[in-house]
Automatic annotation (TrEMBL):
This is Predicted arabinose efflux permease, MFS family. It comes from Sporosarcina newyorkensis. The chain crosses the membrane at residues 7-27, 47-66, 78-96, 102-123, 135-157, 163-185, 213-231, 251-271, 283-301, 307-329, 350-367, 373-391. GO terms for molecular function: transmembrane transporter activity. GO terms for cellular component: plasma membrane. It is found in: Cell membrane.
Length: 413
């Protein structure tokens, strides 16, 4: 087996394990908080929301920072720091007895979730541009599958072993992942064929917001996660209303949610390969429109099987968007700052994870749960409009764009 293939397999497995730790507490979060004391329902719900969102808030901030460190010091050391950091924070969660400590540990867990963008940048650095979509699509399957199936696995372990042991078992699995990186990953140090421009963080951030295509990629990345997470807290209520079932609602809701993950897994690689062949912008536009077409009917279903089928089709389209946007970043970003740029892309994903549940709750509170699907669908159309505007304007080379801005910044000093 070649070194690159071995590296890829190890990173795929570790992405699945690490991403799963971020969402595995969802099925039993409120129940775990209730074991800390005799709290009111309102108190438990408030802290459940704060504790779940805490990881994504700190991860949003830290992802590009870890990416910048990886660009400077190498990918493997950053993967190890984050891997063992995640394992320690998850292990300690199994022994907390107050919501405040639990909240702090979730914040700590977010600080060391630079594993995902760093692993993407690592694989990207050893992948030819013409194969980026296929390879990154396959890699993204691991991370997306982990985040989507994390709740299912977490719920099963909590029922079988209890809350504390679930955290312990999860931390051990992440330690194994970190050890796989330690002993299995061989990093080839990149040789710079030309003089490297030292881009400042200010120039990179400004470039992302002022470069038409890259800014659109970041917006679409957020919309993907808003679409995935806006309905997530409401899905069990929607399923219960459809089925009129007094029991097995949690199982049926989990089945419905997992249908999206199955669509992601089966088609992410295919969409990435198509993007390699016909162009990433074209495929991304198609997927935005497909997502709109598949999410709108979910507001009008009359039975569970219809919802499950539409969630599966929706997963096919959104699962394709993630590797396509990542491949666009791979194509546009200079090699020496790909870790940082992918970190920002991951931050926008985490932003969608934060906005999605709040957005869904607000819309459903005012208009009803079916309206969440419709309003989210409109967001995908807006994303398509942004993309169309970006690609119809004169092409901007992102690397040259950054170089020009860095020269301007240096001249002002």
């Amino acid at each position: 087996m070649s070194r690159h293939k071995k590296n890829f397999i190890i990173i795929w497995v570790t992405n699945f394990l690490v991403a799963g730790t971020m969402t595995m507490i969802m099925p039993f979060l409120s129940l775990y908080i209730e074991t800390f004391g005799d709290y009111s329902e309102e108190y438990v719900q408030k802290w459940a929301g704060l504790i779940f969102g805490a990881t994504f808030i700190t991860a949003l901030i830290m992802s590009p920072i870890w990416g910048r460190f990886a660009d400077r010091f190498g990918f493997k050391p950053i993967l190890l720091i984050n891997g063992f950091g995640i394992a320690i924070s998850v292990f300690l969660m199994g022994f907390v007895n107050s919501v405040e400590v639990f909240f702090l540990l979730r914040l700590l867990n977010g600080l060391v979730t630079g594993f995902l963008p760093t692993s993407l940048a690592f694989i990207s650095s050893q992948t030819p541009r013409e194969q980026a979509g296929k390879m990154l699509g396959t890699l993204q399957m691991g991370g997306v599958a982990g985040m989507l199936f994390g709740p299912v696995l977490g719920g099963m372990m909590a029922d079988s072993f209890g809350f504390s042991y679930t955290f312990i078992i999860t931390s051990v699995s992440v330690v194994i992942a970190a050890l796989l990186v330690l002993f299995g990953i061989k990093e080839e140090h990149r040789v710079k064929a030309r003089k490297v421009v030292a881009y400042s963080r200010k120039v990179i951030i400004g470039g992302l917001f002022k470069h038409r295509l890259m800014f659109n990629v970041m917006i679409v990345t957020t919309l993907i996660q808003v679409g995935n997470f806006s309905i997530q807290p409401l899905l069990s209520l929607y399923v219960a209303d459809l089925t009129h079932a007094a029991t097995n609602v949690a199982f049926l809701a989990g089945l419905t949610f997992s249908a999206t993950g199955l669509g992601n897994l089966l088609f992410a690689r295919m969409w990435g390969k198509i993007g390699d062949d016909i162009g990433y912008e074209k495929v991304l536009g198609i997927l935005l429109l497909l997502s709109f077409l598949f999410i709108i009917p979910q507001a009008f279903v009359t039975s569970l099987w219809q919802l499950v089928l539409l969630r599966f089709l929706f997963g096919i389209s959104t699962g394709g968007m993630i590797p396509i946007t990542t491949a666009l970043v791979r194509r546009e970003a200079p090699l020496e700052v790909q870790g940082e740029v992918m970190g920002y892309n991951t931050s926008f994903r985490f932003l969608g994870n934060i906005i999605g549940p709040m957005f869904g709750g607000i819309v459903s509170g005012y208009i009803g749960i079916p309206a969440v699907f419709i309003v989210t669908g409109v967001l995908f159309v807006i994303g398509y409009a942004f993309l169309t505007f970006a690609i119809r304007r004169p092409t901007q080379d992102f690397e040259h764009f950054l170089e020009d801005r860095q020269v301007e910044a240096n001249d002002k000093i």
